[in-house]
Every structure is written in structure tokens, then in C-alpha cells.
Amino acid sequence: MDYLTEQTEREATVRMSGRLTFNDHAKMRALIKELMLNKAKQQTIELSRLEFVDSAGIGMLLIAREELANSDKQLVLRAAGGQVKRVFTVAQIDKLITIQD
Amino acid sequence: MINRQDQDVVLHGLGVPAERLVRMAEACGLAGWRVMTPAAAGYSGGPPPEGAAPGSAQREGAEHSPEGPDLAGPESAGPESGQSGADGRRACRVGRSVGLFCDAEAFLNGAIWRRPLAAWIEVGGLGDDTLGTLIRSAVDSHLFVSLTTVTASRILLAHQLVGAFGDWWPLSVETSQDIELALHEAVSNALLHGNLQINGMKTMTVGALDQFARDVAGRLADPSLAARRVEVVCRREEGTLIIDVSDQGSGYVPIGGGKRGASGRGLELIAAIAQSFDILDHGRRIHMRFAL
């Protein structure tokens, strides 16, 4: 998995690409640290270029959501497609995290 | 099921001494053998195998090796892959090979996960008896993989294997994605919870993530855990793909119903995708069935 961060005053957007699996724990740790340091109240992870996510990847996204919520910030997942969208549906994670098309 | 009497299976070896390859092919009653070099396997790297003729790309068991496509790039996987939809046995008669790999780096290369190879065995420290048992299991399967934990954790095993399956029996994109996810979850469970005996992330905190990362690195650094095997057996029967994933851990039977942290969704995903699945061998094997 790779990611790029873009920031405006009110919103930070992370563009994620590649495959997000249990092997990416170090990168996810770094990403969550960046999000925590960021002052924007709404933080979006844009997933249109993410090709594959597994249950551990979902778990790490939920950790990011939880840690941000503890700092009074909101995490939104946007533009998931293909396999990623399918996994979100199967795992019903829309009940746990905000998902936008 | 594959018909072993067809005698159609050739043993390929990458980095395996030629005399051992001959010995294993004969012991397992295979049709022939072939020494692969990294270049012939479609990737560069690693030393040439001991016993390979200098300057030659491949050496073959002269008497029995069938004519057929070399193990090489996509061209050998090309036109034939579409013809085999209805009859798995017939498809497998076309130059099916079992690959023995001494050089684990080879598994990182996509080119080796193609026809005619239908089985991928990491030799590691295995003796002839164990290796022979694995080769015979491979002959009796449509696709077969046996890797050490350390190697399996470095590669996209489910992705490569589902791609290899599609090489023999084309799959729709959706079916292929679903099976890849279920297989990936089963392999991850076998590696992390089975062989490495790591607990899931119990809470949704970075602390749990850090602990998980430390556990993975720490357990993989233990040679006895890193050398444990994960095995994947694929069999195709009328409209169904049956996949067994097994590990050498102490047995892991998930407990449902408890409070869940960041982990624990793998089996749910498998349950949502597969027609059915069972946990067998005291939690060391998952048996999954998929509609094709």
C-alpha cells in the first residue's frame, strides 16, 4: 500500500493505492500518526486506486477511525470501487464508519 | 481427481541438484523431470542450480519428458487456457508440472505462477521422505502449494494462486476476486494465528496495532516458527472449487460472540463468500467450497 496526503484548511485527504493487508501495519501506523497530528476536523481517505483490502486492512481503518474519534475528528472513506467496495459491503463496515461514493 | 495413471506429471526443479530431482521423480513415479534456471523460469536472480549444464537453459529427463510448452512467460499460458472449461482432467493432461524450489526468491516472481506448473513446493530443509509425500499430494490435487511461513508471508499467495487457477479454468472477475479474498483470509489465519500463534488485535487502538506488529516481527525471527509450513490444496469438481488450507500450529478454533476488536472478521468474510466451510484437524485446517 502507498499513500499521498493532501491538505486544505478544513480537510485532509489521503489517497491510498495498491493493496492494504496485514503486511502494511507499519505504513498504517505512520498514516494514523499523520492523521492524529493533523488539525483538520474532517479527514478523508480516498480509495479509488486501492485494489485490494483484507480483514486486517479493515481492522486498521477502524483503528484510524477510533483514534480520530477520540480526538474529536471524523474519518470518512470515499470512492471505494471493485474488490474494496465489495469487501466493505460483505463486512458491513458502513455500520461502523462513514462511507461515501 | 487427477488420474495418476496418466503419468503425465513432470517434476521441475529450480536450484535443486539434478540428481535429487531424478531421484524424487523416480520415487514418485512421475513422467519426467526438468532442471529450470531462473532465466528459464522468467526471472533473473539467484545462482544457477547445481548440476545444470553450463550455458544451457534447461536439462530434461531425456526418456520420458513430454513435449510441451516450456516453463516461461505468458505465451506458454496463452491459447490453451480457454479450451479446458468443461473437463478438468483433460485440461490437466496438458503438461502439468510440479515445481520444487530451493530458491525462495523465485516465489516473488509472477512468471513461475503460470502453466504448466500446477504445484509449488519450497524445498527448504525437507528430507526426501517428506518431500515425496508432498509431491504425491501435489499429483493428486489440481493445484498445490507448500511454503514456509516466512516465504508465504512475503508473497501474494492467494493472488498468485487464483491467477494460476484462472490459467487452467478461466474465472469471472467477480468470482476470482471473491475466491482470492477468502483464500487470502484463510492463508493469513494459517500464518498469523496458526503457525506464528499471534493473537488478533483485541482493541481498536494504535497500541493493539503496535503489539500486533511487534508479535509478527518477533515470531518470524524465530527460525522454528518461520520454518513451519502452510499448505494449500485446490481441487475442482463439477462446478465447485474445493480449497483446503492447513498449518502446523497448535490449532486455532475461533470463539464467536465475544466483544470484537480490530481483528476477527476474516472468518466472517469467508462465511459470506464460500458455499460452505469447515474447521478441521483441531483447528489446523480449513476446508472451503466455492461455486464456480
**Per DSSP, what share of the residues of chain A sits in E-state strands of 2 or more residues?**
35-45%
Q: Could you tell me the number of beta strands of chain B?
A: 10
Mean pLDDT of chain B: 82
User: What shape does the CA trace of chain A take?
Assistant: globular
Radius of gyration of chain B: 19 Å
The end-to-end distance of chain B, rounded to whole angstroms, is: 17 Å
Termini gap of chain A: 21 Å
H and E order of chain B: EHEEHEEHEHHHHHEEHEE
Structural class of chain B: alpha/beta
Please outline the major beta sheet of chain B.
10 strands, mixed
**Average pLDDT across residues of chain A?**
94
| Name of the CATH class of chain A | Alpha Beta
Structural category of chain A is alpha/beta
Q: Which parts of chain B are unreliable, with pLDDT below 50 for 5 consecutive residues or more?
A: 1-7, 46-58, 62-93
Mind sketching the topology for me?
The complex is a heterodimer of chains A (101) and B (292).
Chain A: E1 2-7, E2 11-20, H1 25-37, E3 42-53, H2 55-70, E4 74-78, H3 82-91, E5 98-100
Parallel strand pairs in A: 2-3, 3-4, 4-5
Antiparallel strand pairs in A: 1-2
Chain B: E1 10-14, H1 18-27, E2 32-36, E3 59-60, H2 88-93, E4 97-101, E5 117-122, H3 128-139, E6 143-148, H4 149-152, H5 157-168, H6 173-195, H7 206-220, H8 223-226, E7 229-237, E8 240-246, H9 266-273, E9 276-280, E10 285-291
Parallel strand pairs in B: 1-2, 1-4, 4-5, 5-6
Antiparallel strand pairs in B: 2-3, 6-7, 7-8, 8-10, 9-10
Helix pairs in contact in B: 5-6, 6-9
Describe the structure.
The complex is a heterodimer of chains A (101) and B (292). Chain A is α/β, with parallel strands linked by helices and 101 residues long. Chain A has one domain: STAS domain (Transcription Regulator spoIIAA, 2-Layer Sandwich), CATH 3.30.750. Chain A has three helices and five strands. In chain A, helix 1 (25-37) runs parallel beside helix 2. Chain A is globular, with a radius of gyration of 12 Å. The two termini of chain A are 21 Å apart. Chain B folds into two domains: 4-79 and 89-140, no CATH class; 173-291, Heat Shock Protein 90, CATH 3.30.565. Chain B is 32% helix and 20% strand. Chain B contains nine helices and ten strands. Chain A binds chain B through residues 19, 21-23, 25-26, 28-29, 32-33, 52, 54-56, 58-60, 62-63, 65-67, 82-83, 86-87, 90-91, and chain B through 153, 156, 159, 174, 177-178, 180-181, 184-185, 188, 192, 200-201, 204-206, 208-210, 212-213, 216, 261-266, 268-269, 272-273.
